[in-house]
């Protein structure tokens, strides 16, 4: 039978146990049976069973020893716990006693109770030190309950603040193992926030002190290391780092507002941020402007170097000087004509680079400026963009473009300046978009400046076009008329054999004018188009008016002049300027004086379109008729 511990359960009878073992062994029964009694086999079974009993005894003995050791260990642990609870209670009792004695000792006169006061003070400090040591050990063991007990006792001691300091210092150990100090801080505060309420009676005070400690030590050191290394050596990287660090710090502060930090946590966190960045923010805008100024100059110089172009001097205070002359409507001396070989000296890539740098500057300005200084700072950045983009690039290209405009007597002139105007206009639209997208949300004061800049841009275009571009266009018209118009056009030798609808000179002038009007419309937009075409149309009319007064007209020649003016009037419709069309309507009516019958001359002069004109002007036109003297037409004006 199997040897197990169950065979020895109470009540146990040894004789019965042996008898049962012998009976179950084949040939071992005392009364024989089916098999004869076999003493050797029974002896062998007893020996084997004795060996099994020895093994079972050893196994049970080992188990007994294990249970005895476990019992002893638990007894010791229980004894320690009892001692700890007893000692803890003695600490509370001792703390209560020493605290009361300390308060009483404050009232005792020093001269009589100096020794007593010293002993009480010594015991007070010893106990306080022991409590802090106990709190430190409990924190390291992670015993929240014990930490809470000790903190509650220390609450009435002067060393309570030191206990909080110990807690803050120890909870940061091992918390900053990664490279991201901001993420580590957020995780640490999240973990401590769950624990601090279980340990301290005023968790919001402890949490605020922890965050203050992190900001004034860990974060401030991190910011200083990042910024001080690049402040002098690499301004661009310094500004990028400052923007990134300030942005991440404010984002961290926003996360921390979810914790209970007292009544005015937003002001508290703002002061912590200011304590870290105040020295950097005070000089921010000066460094921003210094960087933009040098960066803008470098971008400009790199472009002109790529064109192998040495920038010309366009005078000091060019913009102010130009605006003053616009205001006074005086002539602008532009110097000799130069050949730019069709180069506009305007670069979309350069413009994109300048606008990109300015966009980053606006973003930094928005983030890093004090709200009260934001409009002023943003405006100073805007002025640098105006200086680099509008003055140093667009205005310079306009100056060069103007210098490249041929004189009014040039033959077959190419007006590259309108290409400059077209590109400048496109660039200004990019400038305008950034103004509305980036600057408008930051500053309203710049709106007036930008509007003034826009008006200046319009006036500048018109003013500059007045001086050479329109002069050149009119010069080309004069050249066509001078070379193509014949005196015999208006006094044909055979009055009965005139087969043309209008003269060759008229045809070529109209083709040229229509092409220039189309060019102006493609190059400009808005009020610029109307202003330039109005001036060009008025000059076009004046030229034709003066041109027609150089000839004398036969009856058929007068009819041909009327046909020419009708074609000029059709061309004037392309200007879409009512004034210009009205001028050509009047000129067309004046040309009727060249062909009207002498008896009807007075009636025509009193017509709707001519009645308000100076009679000397009417007389001058009538004098152009070849029959002026023979028909005694002058009597109608005497």
Structural class: mainly alpha
Compute the gyration radius: what is it? 53 Å
Distance between the termini: 165 Å
* Strand percent estimate: under 5%
Q: Report the CATH architecture of the largest domain.
A: Up-down Bundle
Q: Are there runs of 5+ residues with pLDDT below 50, and where?
A: 315-319, 325-335
Largest sheet, if any? none
Q: How is the CATH topology of the largest domain named?
A: Methane Monooxygenase Hydroxylase, Chain G, domain 1
Q: What's the overall geometry? A: elongated
| Structural domains: how many | 4
Look at the structure and give the mean pLDDT: 78
CATH class of the largest domain: Mainly Alpha
Number of helices: 21
Pfam families: Sec10_HB, Sec10_N
Coiled coil: 43-77
Family: Belongs to the SEC10 family.
Protein name: Exocyst complex component 5
Structural features:
638 residues, mainly alpha, single chain
Topology (SSEs and partners):
Layout: H1 14-24, H2 39-107, H3 110-141, H4 144-154, H5 160-171, H6 181-199, H7 203-228, H8 235-256, H9 265-282, H10 284-306, H11 318-328, H12 348-368, H13 374-403, H14 417-439, H15 445-484, H16 504-523, H17 527-548, H18 555-572, H19 578-591, H20 601-605, H21 615-622
What does this structure look like?
- By secondary structure, the chain is mainly alpha-helical.
- Helices cover 71% and strands 0% of the residues.
- The chain has helices spanning 14-24, 39-107, 110-141, 144-154, 160-171, 181-199, 203-228, 235-256, 265-282, 284-306, 318-328, 348-368, 374-403, 417-439, 445-484, 504-523, 527-548, 555-572, 578-591, 601-605, 615-622.
- The longest helix is centred in the first third of the chain and has 69 residues, at 39-107.
- It is elongated.
